Amino acid sequence: MQLTGEQLIGYRVIRGKGRELLAINPDDQQAISTPVFTCATADLVDQACVLAEQAFDPFRATDPETRAQFLEAIADGIVELGSTLTERAHIETGLPMARLEGERGRTAGQLRLFASVLRQGRWQTATLDSALPERQPLPRPDLRMCKIPLGPVAVFGASNFPLAFSVAGGDTASALAAGCPVVVKAHRAHLGTSELVGRVIQEASKRLELPEGTFSLVVGDGSDVGQQLVSHPAIKAVGFTGSRAGGLALMRTCAARPEPIPVYAEMSSINPVFLLPGALANQASAIATAFVDALVMGAGQFCTNPGVVLAVEGPDLDAFLARAAAHLAEKAAQTMLTPGIHSAYELGVRRISGEAGIEAVASGQAHSGATQAQGHLYQTTFASISANAGMLEEVFGPAAIVIRCQNVEQMLAFAHSIEGQLTATLHLENEDLTIAQGLVQAMEKKAGRVLINGFPTGVEVCDSMVHGGAFPATSDSRTTSVGSTAIERFLRPVCYQNFPDVLLPRALKHSNPLNIWRQVDGKTAAPCS
Ligand code: NAP
After folding, report:
1. What is the extent of the structural domain holding 103?
2. Which keywords fit this entry according to its UniProt record (predicted)?
């Protein structure tokens, strides 16, 4: 597949009239000479959004089976791109080939998961309450509820998952599954990768004869294109993964629109890890090894990176720190995704190092490339953190702080005071269960996922996954951006009262023509097998 650097607007391929851009290889910071990308101007953003608006009714009217086939065709197309896709992603992001191959599998798997969700039909939440004409003192009308799509969705590709959280990532897959057309803003950090995947979606859409505006991909640099996109009246929801500043800016814009719309932004998280006394006494060395492996994985560029560890003072904590320091010292520096993310990491590390009460414990091997990140581990005390909560600001990369507590009550106080998180982890043994109960109660109010005896990096894509959490982990703690329930973000319920069968949505018709699970008069009704 030939890259051209153009915008994909519905079925069309159009050269933008905005600024020219070249993709950058973060390894040597050199521009990748082909192709030359051009940014969209406001008229192209408008065309993409208007086409999406026109596509909405015919696209939402498609059979769930047609949309399932669409998602599967995208998954097949991504896999068929083979090394063309992974090699381009590798030079644009510096991520190792093995990681990208795994991420490609995950991306295809996510798309196929949503295809199976569509076929199974529970996403429509079809609920029927039959009429009770004889009820006293008042009769009950026939009431039926199901969920319908919100409308066109703007998706911002994430820098750190060029496939799984980008053009055909979880936000796009869940929005398309719901029946929402999608306009993606390509991330500047992997422009060619975005075009390759965008062309697969465009081809699949054409082949299945879906409405033209079902999918568009626009390129922009700086906030203009993104702001125009989320301000467009055709757009009815936003999916975003990135910085807290970026997410907050989009939330503000969307709240200030004449018609405010929901923004599902995944932003910042430091993913606390609590080492309970029994676990620390029995497993300090093994936990330290696994912790450092998780910390430096992917140069720490995971939203679930464990950025803060808490434990009670004593020889067991010293043993943990000694092993973590020795293991970190063996870890090579790794190339970060972009020069910008690398400089933000360097700034963050300098900020932490300069804080009062912070002490360096160990570093990984020194970097040889200008955009490589060296791992860093620091320690401080609960008292210092309490006096300066700013120390806990996310540093995106392989840096973490160990907080030495005087007792478990301080760990609990920390759990109550920390802001919202994507994950919280407890390492424990049976003797720690009473302390664990208090920590779980505190952390389940903040985090989307609470883990025992593991590390949060590596997010399973499945029905029970919650990749969310209270602000600022996300802008809406009621939802997830990973797993099948991500579709909920782009749906809303409608109740149909006293409708004749002919006017009802198919999910609610008397004969259950979609053959889906429904709730009928308070009982679950299985489809016919
Ligand atoms: P970012 O700067 O927030 O950018 C993400 C996307 O949003 C880009 O397409 C960007 O456009 C757009 N954008 C940002 N601010 C905007 C605004 N005010 N208006 C409209 N669009 C806007 O994130 P990033 O480039 O991926 O990484 C930068 C930092 O984000 C990292 O250092 C890290 O701290 C954080 N991050 C967090 C996560 C996480 O999962 N929690 C993941 C990735 C990154 P342009 O690039 O064209 O400006």
Report:
1. 7-131+140-267+480-488
2. Oxidoreductase
pTM (whole model) above 0.85 = yes
- How does the average pLDDT of the chain come out, rounded? 96
Query: Across the chain, which distance is largest between two alpha carbons, in Å?
Result: 81
- Whether the Cβ atoms of residue 453 and residue 279 lie closer than 8 Å to each other: yes
Say if ligand 1 is within 6 A of residue 343 CB: no
Model confidence band, residue 418 (pLDDT cutoffs 50, 70, 90) = very high
List the residue whose alpha carbon is closest to atom 24 of ligand 1: 242
Instruction: Identify whether residues 280 and 251 lie together within a single domain.
Output: no
Spacing, Cα 246 to ligand 1 middle (Å): 5
Q: Is the CB of 226 under 6 A from ligand 1?
A: yes
pLDDT for residue 506 is more than 80: yes
pLDDT tens digits, one per residue of 161-207: 999 999 999 999 999 999 999 999 999 999 999 999 999 999 999 99
The one-letter code for the residue type at 427 is H
Question: How many angstroms separate the Cα of 398 from the Cα of each of 143, 305, 494?
Answer: 54, 8, 46
Q: Are residues 407 and 294 in the same domain?
A: yes
- Cβ of 170 closer than 6 Å to ligand 1, yes or no, is no
188 CA: nearest ligand 1 atom: 46
Q: How confident is the model at residue 335 (pLDDT cuts 50, 70, 90)?
A: very high
Do 37 and 93 lie in one domain? The reply is yes
Q: How many CB atoms lie under 10 A from the CB of residue 375?
A: 26
CA–CA gap between residue 154 and residue 217 (Å, rounded): 10
Predicted pLDDT of residue 61: 96
Single-letter residue type at 329: A
Domain membership of residue 2 (yes or no) is: no
Both 179 and 154 in one domain: the answer is: yes
Please give the full DSSP string across 355-369, using - where no structure is assigned.
STT-EEEEE-PPP-S
Q: Which of 193, 221, 243, 423 to mutate to test the pocket of ligand 1 (most atoms within 8 A of CB)?
A: 243
- Whole-number Å distance, alpha carbon 448 to ligand 1 midpoint, is 21
In a domain, 260, yes or no: yes
Q: pLDDT tens, 428-475?
A: 999 999 999 999 999 999 999 999 999 999 999 999 999 999 999 999
Which two three-digit tokens encode residue 17? 């009239």
Catalytic site positions: 266, 303
